[in-house]
Amino acid sequence: MKRAKVGGNLNDLKRRALREVNKQPMEEEGGTLSQEEVRRIIHDLRTHEIELRMQNDELLRTQEKLVEERNQFSDLYDFAPVGYLALDAKGVIQKTNHAGAALLQAFRSTCLGKPFSAYVSRDSVETFFLHLRQTFESDTVQQCEIKLKNRGEGLVYVLVESVCWPQDGNERVCRTALIDLTALKPAEEIRFANERLVLAISDQEAVESQLRRNLSELSLSNDELEQFAYVASHDLREPLRNISTSLSILEKRYKPRLDDDANRLVGYAIQSAATMTALIDDLLQYALSGAAVLQLEEVDCAALLDSIPALLRKTIKETGAVITRGPLPTITADRGQLARVFQNLIHNASKFSGDSPRIHVSARKQDAEWRFAVTDNGRGITPENRESIFALFKRVDQRENSGTGMGLAIAKKFVDRHGGKIWVESEIGEGSTFYFTIPVTVLPRDQ
Ligand code: ADP
Question: What is the pLDDT of residue 126?
């Protein structure tokens, strides 16, 4: 900004006044002036001249004072530590001091006439325009915090305070102060982050304690369920055995004396009692497997598998299934549970493989686990059923009454207890392969 100088030259003024006087020569109506009159006029003129001179001196002093004050204000404006800007209603910069330009990281000359928003970080532009609108719509000071673009590292945080000012004519401008908050920001952010962290931790603690409560309730209800299943299946076994025995005796002794209809009904009853026995056995097994501690031992899987056909004699005879195997390892596992996994998978493979089931069992070591595969040439399993069949009582076709719907759930539970996984891959009409893994070093869950 140009500094003002005291202007106005007294002699110049005098010269101009003389010029005016000379244009109108002094003439008095009615003749020439007396000496006395001339002396008086000259005296008056001198007095006026002195008066004028004094007034002029006074004016000059006032003007000097004004200029001095204006320069002081200008210094104050230019070198104030806070950024001061004048913006029009569109946010175009009309004026700025050094601190304002420094905060915008621009030269004063280059930022004049440019939109202020060009210096605002993208995520603060909306806040700035809202602030500008509010400032022009009100008479009070408006405030907001925004981020400015920074050519160096990090961001420049500023507090913006604006007030709208009437200007000459109708156009209004707003005076805007920019206060640098950058130095305060990291501390403030750390405080916010800390508060958020404390909140998150207390949330997490609440969730964890709820989880713990749920878990203990779950394990309680699991225990109760297992106990109930055990008691129910155990207690049901005895009367069921009596029913089965009585039905067999009934069939044997009275068959010739009963008509066909009665014999068919006895046959259904015997069949249902057998299904119920299987169901109760499975249920008991399932219930017990959760609580029982794994009996880990060295298990020769080849020998174990060779003993399975004897256990499945009836099914194998009915279906004509042919079982083959590749070389199988000796592993550490619970023999009873491992046998049950193979038995259930081979039983299913025989049941769901049509006329001439071909079943092959193989094993492969993969990293730190053994992966077993039981492959059949059966009907296959649709993709939507490949996971759900491992749930309790889940059958693909509920009309099938040859099983209990528990075989795969039991197999899964036993594999889980060894720390392994079980899944199926299948082609509809081509067959299925059930895979399960047993870690080389068993670290059973819940032991
Ligand atoms: P269950 O055999 O007693 O019905 P599972 O739990 O052993 O019960 O099997 C659940 C269902 O999975 C079976 O009802 C059957 O629909 C399907 N399934 C199991 N194994 C096979 C297989 N090898 N091929 C085709 N479907 C199978």
Answer: 95
Atom of ligand 1 nearest to the CA of 409: 6
The pTM score is: 0.51
Hey, what amino acid is at 244?
A: S
Is 142 touching ligand 1 by the criterion CB < 6 Å? no
Ligand 1: which residue has its CA nearest to atom 21? 348
Identify the residue whose C-alpha is closest to ligand 1 atom 18.
348
The CB of 432 under 6 Å from ligand 1? The reply is yes
Question: Running along the chain, 447 residues long, what does each successive block of 10 average in pLDDT?
Answer: 50 70 57 79 85 87 85 81 91 92 90 94 93 91 90 80 74 88 73 75 80 72 69 77 87 86 88 82 74 84 92 87 95 93 94 89 94 95 92 70 80 92 94 96 62
